[in-house]
Amino acid sequence: MTIAKIEAGTLKANAEARVVSGLLLPFGEVGTTNLGKFSIAKGAITIPEDVEVLNANVQHDSESPVGRFLSAVETDSGIVASFSVGKNPEGDTLLAEIADGSRSKLSAEVKNIVLRAGVAVSGVLFGAAFVTEGAFPSAALMAADVGGEPVTTEEKFSDEYTDADGKTFIRKGTRKTVIDGDKTTITEVIELTEPKPDDAPENEEDNMSATVPSTLQAGALKPAEKIDANTLFAAIVAAKNSPDPTLMAALSDVKYDSAGAPGVTVTQPAFQGELWAGRGFARKVIPLISSGTLTGLKYTGWRWNQKPEVGTWTGNKTELPSNVPTVTPYTGTAQRFAGAWDIAREYYDFPTAENAEFIASLTRAMVDSYAQKSDAYTLAQLLAASTTAAVGTGVPATVNPGIAKLVRGALRVIAADATPSFALVAPDVYESILWTPEQAGLKFLSQAMGLEEGQIDSFKVVSHTGLAAGQALVGAKQAATALELGGSPIRVSAVDIAKGGYDEAVHGYIGVKIDLPGALQLVTNNA
Fold first, then answer.
1. Per the domain annotation, does 149 fall within a domain?
2. Is residue 105 part of a domain?
3. How far apart, in whole angstroms, are the C-alpha atoms of residue 139 and residue 25?
4. Model confidence over 306-332: pLDDT tens digits?
5. Which of 122, 154, 186 marks a domain boundary?
6. Residue 366 domain flag
7. How confident is the model at residue 161 (pLDDT cuts 50, 70, 90)?
8. For 289, phi and psi rounded to 5 degrees?
9. CB 333, CB 522: distance < 8 Å
10. I need a labelling partner for 158 at 20 to 30 A (CA). Which of 87, 188, 206, 357 fits?
11. Are 422 and 477 a contacting pair, CB within 8 Å?
12. What angle do CA 367, 372, 376 make, to 5 degrees?
């Protein structure tokens, strides 16, 4: 339901009779409303058959009715209406304001508004308001300026009336309203009929009549239907959720977020929290090799230099084959990573959801940074320990260059008595591999490495920006071991009393033990 509240003509009041009249709704004039500027065509607005059930309020406050309609008549200039003002302090205030000119405008309340090309072509009158400013040019017109012949309406009513002695009568009346410019005359003819006793003849009745000029007589009110709280709340929710807007006539623009608008001061921005900046860092290198626990900053070990070898033996108490096994010591030092931040204690003293979210995000970022830096360090150690060689010649012309590098690297790892399990490749190499038909590429790679069909599923190809263009590092999982201190990164917190803050720090330790350098093969482009 679309509702319009449209300010129009100037009021004229008869204080003694408490009757107010004026031009309620002008035709053919452009007015400014909260749905924009439009005019109203004659005949577009439907006037209810019984206008006395319609209320009038002050400034469109539906909870503060101060009067009710007596008449509403369509003229060439617009809809002219008269109202009975309540006999109460609010009504007295309204009449005084009309008399001194501080509240001299009428505003129509219209529902089911239909607008076409800036013209209201349909709507239903359902109320009015006494306002201080109008939205239409004719708001300055006096009711006497409406023009035309006097407008006369006649209404009939019937109710029960009880006098001071407690005697009840049937009251029937006719109310005649004549609006002539700024003069409104109301004449009522009332007929009181005493109820007939049950045994009285039908033709016996006592009639009394009275003529009451220019005086309003309130009809008996129909008792309001009782509703419970659930019904009331349901009605409120239904009104709130109605898809149809309410159209109010605009007096002055109340803007929202333009310069000087109230919305700039009275509203708050909607807090959205941390913006998504991409997924958290996931290690690419460390998961490809073996892992172990770091128990000290320095670690040692050894590897075979000359392994024991057996030989053929002729028997018959001849000397047994033998050799001299030798080993090479291995030492390493873990790489230390750390970061610390002195955070204002206000983030903790005011435990709002926003502050808690920031501290949690800060901690995640610390951990992400350690994971990223330690993974990059591991790649650097693998590259430093690897054997570097170009892809070489003899590659069939039909083979994708990226696949060729994987094959050459895998064959070199196999030659070092290891099974290739991964390849870290530069982004350009990875792209060329992706352009290779899946079955053809995998089948060729499987056959080239001498693996059983299906074993290729355990071979992982990972794109990494840490490799230079054209490079592919092929290796075996057992070729190296990442030694990391348990619980890394370690988070450390302390109170900075002197500066009023909290110190947050993370520490991590990781070492990369190279077990079999020959199982790490870096393949590059041919020179």
1. yes
2. yes
3. 10
4. 999 999 999 999 999 999 999 999 999
5. 154
6. yes
7. confident
8. -115, 180
9. no
10. 87
11. yes
12. 150
